[in-house]
Amino acid sequence: MSVTFEPGLLRAYFVAGSQDVPGQDLRDVLAKMLAAGITAFQFRDKATSTLTPEQRLALGRDLRAQCRAANVPFIVDDDVDLALALDADGIHVGQSDQRIQQVIQAVAGRNIFVGLSCSTMAEVTAANAIAGIDYLGSGPIFPTTSKADADPVVGTAGLQKLVAQSRVPVVAIGGVTVDSLPAIAETGAAGVAVITLLTHSHNVGADTAAMRQAFSK
Q1: What's the pLDDT at 144?
Q2: Catalytic residue list contains 44
Q3: Which residues contribute to the annotated binding site for Mg(2+)?
């Protein structure tokens, strides 16, 4: 049973791959995040991961099953073949990843929603003209350590302009902290996508609740 996209799914959006939780099993980490109340999970296993394709597929299957049991959408980063193999609920694509039109075509009729990273007004304007995009990921809002090739920081003022320009909901990414949630919510963003806010959290339950509450309107 796939999860149908709606903007509320973006409120507390957890992103992680095995490279983000060194010394831990991502299954255990995800179980903790699901129990805390995350609203979406993106499996983002990058080139820095030490997993073989077979291990990545096996891990993905387990993570997919965990999300399905919790009725939380399971989203795959960038890899259409992996998303299809895992029967993912969604796929997220960056500007430099597989071309967005090809991704939309590949998942057509599969009940898979599509997210696209956009960090400039020009990218949002281009995305507005493409049918089949369900949400945008915009940022980095603040400096981030989890993406070596991150775009220049846009800040909350820049985010507000991107949100106003976009025809679909926007999830804010990059350097998000609990203290910054109110200012991000004021931009009209639908939620935040985070890695370190939760993987480095001392209180996952409280921090997840803060995200859900900030974007509950």
Answers
A1: 75
A2: yes
A3: 78, 97
Binding-site residue ranges: 42-46, 77-78, 97, 117, 144-147, 175, 195-196
Q: Which of 117, 119, 138, 166 is catalytic?
A: 117
- Among the options 27, 32, 68, 147, which is catalytic? 147
pTM: 0.95
Tell me, yes or no, if 32 is annotated catalytic: no
Active site residue 68: no
Counted domains in the chain: 1
d(CA 214, CA 103) in angstroms, rounded, equals: 31
Alpha helix positions (H), the chain: 26-36, 53-70, 80-85, 100-107, 121-128, 155-165, 181-186, 196-199, 204-214
Residue 133, domain extent: 5-213
Of the listed ranges 28-32, 50-54, 128-132, 174-178, the least confidently predicted one is 50-54
Instruction: Encode pLDDT of 65-102 as tens digits.
Output: 999 999 999 999 999 999 999 999 999 999 876 689 99
> Domain with 45 in it: what CATH number?
3.20.20.70
10 near 39, Cβ under 8 Å? yes
